[in-house]
Amino acid sequence: MNIGTIGTGNIVTWVMSEAVRAQGVTYEAVYSRWEETGRALAERFGVQKVYTALDDMLADPAVDWVYVASPNSLHYAQTKKALESGKHVICEKPFAPTRAQAEELAALAAEKDLFLFEGITTLFLPHFAYIREKLPEIGPVRQVSCTFCQYSSKYDALKAGETPNVFNPAFAGGALMDINLYNLYFVYGLFGMPEKLTYHARRHENGIDLGGTAVLEYPGFIAQCTGAKDCKGENGAHIIGEKGFIRVEDPVSMCTRVTVVTDAGEQMFDEQQGETAWYWEMQGIAGMVAAGDRAGCRRRMEKTIEMAELLERARQSAGIIFLGNA
Q1: Where are the beta strands (DSSP E) in 45-186?
Q2: Helix (H/G/I), strand (E/B), else coil: 197
Q3: Full-prediction pTM beyond 0.70?
Q4: For the CA atoms of the chain, what is the radius of gyration?
Q5: pLDDT by residue (tens digit) across 159-176?
Q6: What is the sign of the dihedral through the CA atoms of 212, 198, 241 and 273?
C-alpha cells in the first residue's frame, strides 16, 4: 500500500502515524492545495512528494492508494476521481452525504476490482467485537444509550461570526455527520438497521446542527444517540438488558474499556493494548488487503452504504439541508 493523502488536518496525522506501522504500508505522497501546508505535513513523515494539483498525484504510478481526508462535501467527488484513476481508496467518514452516492462509488470500485474502505474506527476495534460476543449474557436488550459530546476547536470561531467547514452546510458539516455518526455506527454495527429513526437537532442560525439526539427504534428496545460539538460531556455507552448491562468508557469511536455486569459478577475487558483506535483500523485494513479479501471489503462497504442511508434519514427527520445534497 503506497498511499497518497488528500488533506492536511489532524486526522491525516493521526491515521498516517498508525498506517506506516502496518506491514507493507508506505506514505508516498501528499496533496494539498497549498504548498506550505502540504510541505509541512510531508516533512513530518519524511515524504518527498508534495502535489498541489490532485490530477498530478493521481497520475503518479507509485501511488496505488489514496486516503481522502478533505471536507465532508468533497469526499464523494474525490473518491470517485481516485477510483476512476485506478487507485484503491480509504475515504474518511462520513463516506458520502447520500446512499445513492455511496452505492455509486461501491459499484465503481467493484467494476474496477479496487479496494474501497470507509475510514471508520469502531467496527475494527477488538473491544467492539467483544461487546458483540457478550450481548447474549445480558439477556434481551431493552435500552441503549450513547453519548459523544466534544467541544469543537472550531466552535469559538463560529461564535465569533466565522463559518468553519465543520459548521458549514455547504461542506456537509455539523454534529451528526462529524461526531454522532460514531454513535449510530456503534448501534447499527451491533443491531442492524432500525425500524424507525428520528433525529432531534439543536440548530445554528445557518441551519447546521450543533448537537442533537437520534432515536432508533428496534423490536423490543430503543437506542438513543446523543452527540454535540458545542459542549463537553462524559462520553460512553450503556447497553441495558434484562439480565445485566454493558458499559463502554470513552467515546464509542475508541471503546477504551468495556465492562460486562450480570448477577454472576463483573467482567472487564481492556485488551486494546493501549493502542489508538486508528492503529486497529489501519491494521485491519492492511490485513484485509494483504489477504486479498475483496469479499470482506465489499461486506464492509454494504455497511457503509446503509450508514449513509441512516444519516440521510436522520437529516431529513430534522430538516437539515446540505447545499447541493438532500
Answers
A1: 49-51, 65-68, 88-92, 116-119, 141-149
A2: strand
A3: yes
A4: 20
A5: 999 999 999 999 999 999
A6: negative
